[in-house]
Specification:
The structure is a single chain. Helices cover about 60% and strands about 10% of the residues. About 55% of the residues are buried. A hairpin with a 2-residue loop joins strand 13 and strand 14. The longest helix is centred in the middle third of the chain and has 37 residues, at about 285-320. Helix 9 packs antiparallel against helix 13 (about 415-425) and helix 11 (about 370-405) packs across helix 13 (about 415-425). Strands 3, 4, 5, 6, 7, 10, 11 and 12 form an eight-stranded mixed β-sheet that branches. A two-stranded antiparallel ribbon has the order 1-2. Strands 8-9 form a two-stranded antiparallel ribbon. The chain has helices at about 10-20, 20-25, 35-55, 55-65, 80-85, 105-120, 120-140, 145-155, 285-320, 335-365, 370-405, 410, 415-425, 435-450, 450-465, 475-495, 495-500, 505-530, 540-555, 560-575, 580, and strands spanning about 65-70, 70-75, 160-165, 180-185, 185-195, 205-215, 225-230, 235, 240-245, 245-250, 265-270, 275-280, 325, 330. The chain starts with 7 loop residues before the first helix and ends with a helix. The radius of gyration is 24 Å and the shape is globular. The structure holds flavin-adenine dinucleotide. Flavin-adenine dinucleotide binds near residues 163, 426 and 436.
Length: about 575
């Protein structure tokens, strides 16, 4: 099966040359974030991803997980790999040093996360959900809960998962029905959750569920939902996992992809006692608490799109170099070159976007300058729905192109190309569907903000587009595309909420495409400078320049299509009576 080679050189290029990693080093608390440390961490992570996680990707897909009344057994090799992951300190890479973590910034965590997802997306989901649990507990848990659970979650000794969805409550969490009855200082939970990622498994000694449920007297709707910590095993007096809680995995889904990742239906309180749980944060504020961690979780989804895109590209390139047709390797044929370039060019800009927005989250959290913190938060708020939705759409698109590069062999499972598409397909759905991301972008981040955050970002892109680039000159094309975004932004701000919603997805895709053009122009500039200055890595920089140019001239023009759809959108969508015409 295909090898995975982590793109550490590309990551360092983005961190050190396209972005300004010094900004992160200057933040309080990141003294250890030295260039040598970054290189060393990336090299080690690359080894772990290639040598340990990647070899289990295909076998995990074939084998899946094993459900029984007693619980779930993970696919062969996953438990041992998880132990190595924890022992290597990887789970705690960005975790607080006070709780056993390494205290590295999110931007480095994002680079490592790209590797875990590229190597083995099913596996990567387990620590990804634990990271959300850590965030929930750190931000909202009381001291006792933190003292009891945080260290184990930060190190990964215990895993975490998020239990939000119910059969009638998907995008609309106002419909949550799971009940929490007060019982002394704690609560007893009754109800059912569906689609819970890594909700049950045998890779760790305990699984800590973060569950949305309603108190008996809670108001209806979103203002009556609270957040509870519910351990699989109740802790004994020594803080060790003891009695099994009244919760179980009733079944596991059979799905299109991520077969080695258990997607669980969880039943709480079937034995009549109720699952023992503890309130996290304030009563009835559960959904608001979830919002504070949503940026990180949604960002992580964009990184999933990136990881799977790069893996699909690597596989397709390897095949195209080997496969002979028409008297030469298919990589030499112009149309195959086009496909591979589109995969690589979009992956390059998506990586820059993911790392840049992770840096914004770091600055928003750590800067000692209030104004800088607020500006970085505003930047992250605008970018993250785009990173999530555009990034995961690209993941699917690029994995799909990867199959096409293979021809018939792409449709045959043994090449692995099909698995990447099957795995990638979930990412536009979970953690808020991409339709919901578009509503978030247009409703909250644009209209409610009266366009301030978006206009600040547009101004930064404008500065690049109008700047006097010395020669790489992808700037005029960026300038044209940016004008389309400026017009579309005005249109949506003036359109009124309903009309804007009919256009939300096209607007999000327009944003992704134009932001991508911004990174492409910057990549082209940096590469041009390096080449002009006589770099000894001319192949690398020429490749970056070629890909950036491809993006600007073969992908960025899609902005014109989205902009045209936005101008026509509401009238066309509104003219359809959903009940009569569909
Ligand atoms: C493999 C997998 C893993 C998952 N992991 C977890 C997990 O760990 N924890 C957890 O709690 N959940 C998890 N989920 C659930 C996931 O988050 C939901 O599936 C997702 O939020 C969508 O909800 P739904 O499936 O009910 O679709 P629906 O909400 O029914 O949506 C169906 C369609 O309608 C659209 N739609 C819905 N409402 C609106 C609206 N107001 N405006 C416009 N369009 C709308 C959606 O965009 C979508 O296209 C997982 C799901 C899967 C499949």
């Amino acid at each position: 099966m295909a090898e995975y080679r982590a793109p550490t050189r590309d990551m360092l290029f983005v961190l050190n040359e396209v972005l300004d990693d010094q900004r992160i080093r200057d933040l309080p608390g990141y003294d250890d974030y030295e260039p040598e440390t970054v290189s060393a961490v990336l090299d080690e992570a690359a080894r772990f991803a290639s040598d340990v996680l990647s070899p289990l990707n295909w076998s995990g897909d074939r084998e899946g997980v094993h459900w029984s009344e007693d619980g779930i057994v993970a696919a062969e090799g996953f438990g041992a790999a998880y132990s190595q992951y924890v022992e290597g300190g990887w789970n705690g890479l960005t975790g607080s040093a006070d709780h056993g973590g390494m205290g590295m910034p999110r931007v480095l965590g994002a680079a490592a996360m790209e590797m875990w997802n590229a190597a083995n997306m099913s596996f990567a989901l387990c620590p990804l959900l634990t990271a959300s649990a850590v965030e929930a507990l750190e931000n909202h848990g009381n001291d006792e809960l933190k003292q009891t659970y945080l260290d184990k979650l930060v190190t990964g000794e215990w895993t975490g998962c998020m239990d939000l969805t119910e059969p009638q409550a998907g995008s609309d969490l106002a419909q949550v029905r799971t009940k929490a009855q007060p019982d002394g200082d704690a609560y007893r939970l009754f109800g059912q959750k569906i689609y819970i990622t890594w909700g049950e498994h045998d890779m760790a000694d305990n699984i800590i569920h973060f569950v949305l449920a309603r108190l008996p007297d809670a108001p209806a709707g979103v203002k009556g939902i609270s957040l509870f910590l519910v351990p699989k095993f109740i802790l004994d007096e020594n803080g060790q996992p003891g009695e099994r809680n009244d919760m179980r995995c009733a079944s596991v889904e059979h799905k299109l992809g991520i077969h080695a990742c258990p997607t669980c239906t969880m039943s709480f309180g079937e034995d009549g006692k109720g699952a023992l749980g503890y309130l996290v944060g304030e009563e009835n504020k559960g959904l608001a608490h979830m919002f504070t961690m949503m940026n990180a979780a949604r960002h992580a989804m964009g990184v999933q799109g990136l990881g799977i895109a790069d893996r699909a590209y690597q596989r397709a390139l390897e095949y195209a170099r080997d496969r002979q047709q028409g008297g030469r390797a298919i990589v030499e044929h112009a149309d195959v070159k086009r496909m591979l370039l589109s995969m690589r060019a979009q992956t390059d800009v998506l990586r820059a976007m993911c790392l840049d927005s992770a840096s914004a989250l770091d600055i928003a959290e750590r800067s000692d300058n209030e104004e800088e913190r607020a500006a970085a938060q505003a930047r992250a708020d605008v970018m993250i729905p785009v990173v999530k939705a555009w990034g995961t759409e690209l993941g699917v698109d690029i994995a799909n192109t990867g199959i096409q590069v293979h021809g018939g062999m792409g449709f045959v499972e043994e090449t692995g190309a099909a698995q990447y598409l099957r795995d990638a397909r979930i990412a536009p759905i979970y953690e808020g569907t991409n339709g919901i991301q578009a509503i978030d972008l247009v409703g909250r981040k644009l209209i409610r903000d009266e366009g301030r955050g978006m206009r600040a970002l547009i101004a930064d892109i404008r500065a690049t587009a109008d700047g006097s680039a010395e020669g790489a000159n992808e700037h005029p094309a960026l300038s044209d595309a940016l004008e389309l975004l400026e017009t579309a932004t005005d249109t949506l701000l003036e359109a009124g909420r309903d009309a804007a919603m009919a256009n939300a997805f096209n607007y999000l895709m327009l944003c992704g495409t134009v932001f991508g053009g911004w990174y492409a122009a910057r990549i082209a500039d940096v590469a041009k400078n390096a080449l002009d200055n006589g770099t000894d890595e001319s192949d690398f920089y020429e490749a970056r320049q070629a890909c950036a140019r491809f993006y600007v001239h073969q992908i960025l023009p899609k902005a014109r299509g989205y902009a045209a759809m936005i101008q026509a959108g509401p009238a066309v969508v509104d003219s359809v009576d959903a009940q009569r015409h569909l």
